[in-house]
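EI: anyone free to look at a 839-residue chain?
SC: sure, send it
EI:
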Amino acid sequence: MSDLLEEYYMLAIDRTKSKVLEDIDRYFEGKDNVPTYEQYIRERGEYIDQIFLNSWLNAATSHASNTVKRQYLLEKDYDLEGVSKKLVNQMFRSEIRNVTPFYVLDWLDEMFLGKEDVWSEKYNKSKELYEARVKMQEHREKTRKLMQKFEFYMEELLGDHYEDLYLYIRYLIGSHLAIEVEQQGVVLPTGEMTFSDYLYDEAHFAYNRYRYEEDMTEMYERLISGYLFDFGPNWIKDRLSSHLFDEYLETFHEKLPDKFIKEIAYDLFLDLANEFFADLLEELVTDLIKLIDTPFDLETHKKIYETDISERERKIVAELEEIKRRKEEEARMVEDVFGREYNPPGGRNIEYVLHIGETNTGKTFHAIQRMKEAGSGIYLAPLRLLALEIYEKLNQEGVPCSLKTGEEEKLVAGANHIACTVEMFYEKDFHEVVIIDESQMIADKDRGFSWYKAITKANAKEVHIICSFNARQMILQLLGDSNITIHEYIREVPLEVEPQLFRLNQTRKGDALVCFSRKRVLETAAELQRTGRKVSMIYGSMPPETRKKQMERFISGEATVIVATDAIGMGLNLPIRRIVFLENDKFDGTRRRWLTSQEIKQIAGRAGRRGLYNIGKVAFVHNPKSMARLLDQEDEPLQGFAIAPTTGVLERFQKYSRKLGLFFYLWEQFKSPKGTKKASLAEEKLLYEMIEDTMIEAKLSMADLYGFLHLPFSTNEPTLRNQWKQKLEAIVEGEELPDPLIKEAGLEELELSYKSVGLHLLFLYKLGRNTEAHYWERMREEISDKIHEQLKSGVQITRKACKVCGKTLANKFKFDVCNECHFERQKRKEKRKVRQNQS
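SC: here you go
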């Protein structure tokens, strides 16, 4: 025997001896008389011979380490180089089969052969142990059956007397609650409060005292179970049938002990306590605490409980009836207030002219030519900048034209034409010609209703509607049986998608690089400026005056490249040779998504201005083939136009209430008519939450208040929201409007200052203080000039660096940790997971 395995060999011998002696005991159990030792050997010898080998293989294989196994095999001249652990185990198990066995029969012969008295004594002890074990099993089985019987009768007893027990627990908990309320000085609400509400409110009150308080729910759960364990066993014992006590005495020859009842009742009491607690949660606190004044008597408390239940059910029925009545009243209000307000009108005695086509096809030009010929006209633009462009164009061509947006009014003497943003449209004003630009915006969930209102309620001889092909079907449905003329426009300058991927160093004169955030515009512009290029910029939050100057730099050739957001796709005519998409996806305010076919066409259509280029180029940084397919794809027709509250809706609502909170609630309940989408009114609700139930709401009429909620400014800027509120506070207090906050430390502060002045102008024009507004318009122009100069002189972007190692990152790199640090971090995480799994 190798010294390496001696320990396991001895262990195998011990196990073998133990198993053989156990086998002898089992052998004796089935014998009424003592058999001879020789008889045992004849019958069990074959099994006994196998015991040692099995014990030895299991002991050595299971307990010996891999190192020991390898050393043992090496002693046997095995070559183990490159051999797997699994194969080592197999070789080891096979080799140790040849070890010298322990001769079990020799060991048995030594103990019992020729020693009949020793063999008989072994038999007698085995039989005694067997009989004792049988008696114990019989006793356990009797006990189990008797416990099941007791449990059955106890469970039946508790079920039959559930209400009696509940009434007593109700009395005890109510008394405890009454003392707690008085001692703790708990102030109960004047209205009805359930026990559940009480526990919730008190737990939160304790939490707000910033000191530890026992969880109220757990405390009362323990209190109920404590009561049951206290009186429950004796209560059960007094009501159990006498035959159960007799059966216990007959079985165990002793009287039934209390601990036997408690042991069986333990789980029953826990379940009962949970059911009682659930029932108590629905009870009214006032019903519970009054119980302390009535000593417990089962019949008396049963009557009290029945009265309380009856009253509670009556109140529930009354409450449900009230809810039903309110719902019916609410439905009537919704129908009366909103009702048929949003059904499209039938045919009208107006000549409608649809200008349908792709971007950059001259649709707006032809409509404006017609407006110039008319005696009066109004141009409705999606952007203040476009309204300003038409205003300047018409005045330069000798056609007097005024300008009106939410933030400015420029009235020209003798002007019968006006250019304004679509939100400024007023349906009662008559114009010979009305032009509604970018009418596919009717599907926009927030602004679309302004186009719907203009299209369906225009008061004019002619209404010119300019839109993309995918809006055609919807607008024709809106116009119904009206007199309609359709002009379709096709691009004269074709678009060509470049097959190769675009790289920033390939930027050339006449390129417009498009991305979808102000940050990315500034970063890209800064990178191009560092290479010596002259760059113009356009993004949504840029002041229109600044945007105009940036465009002029590009048009004049002072800037050779323009970097812009998708704002470039909205009616801006620029000498663009090539549109480059630096991104194929965008964040739409809710989620990041791929660009749609219509979005790509709207932007790409700005490439190849007619008269300058014979072809318009389009390039992509990623997936040019997929993007090209979207560019060629026929768009799905627009489905559903946006609706929003009208003046008529607000007037009808005021018959019921002056609370805009109720108005917003009813708007949410209103089911939008088929084919329409409700405006979310998210910005209006955000502002309303700031002034709800304040002096502002109390002093302003609902129409005026809604008008202030509807002002078009950047509500996502917290500082602007605060300024909005401060100005309203000044109005209701009869004080001067606070001046805008103006800071000029950097580009972002200048842009925010511009918006602040714009908000101030919105208030001034709404209050009719036009003279004062002229000063702030000049101030806003000065801020716009400073923004333009900063952009012109070069954008300074803070160096982007890995926050772990400090390595410089590309500005367009999306993450704040470099790839190397990220992968290193991932490795550490994986190692931690492995260690956790091992432990």
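EI: The longest strand covers residues 460-467.
SC: 👍
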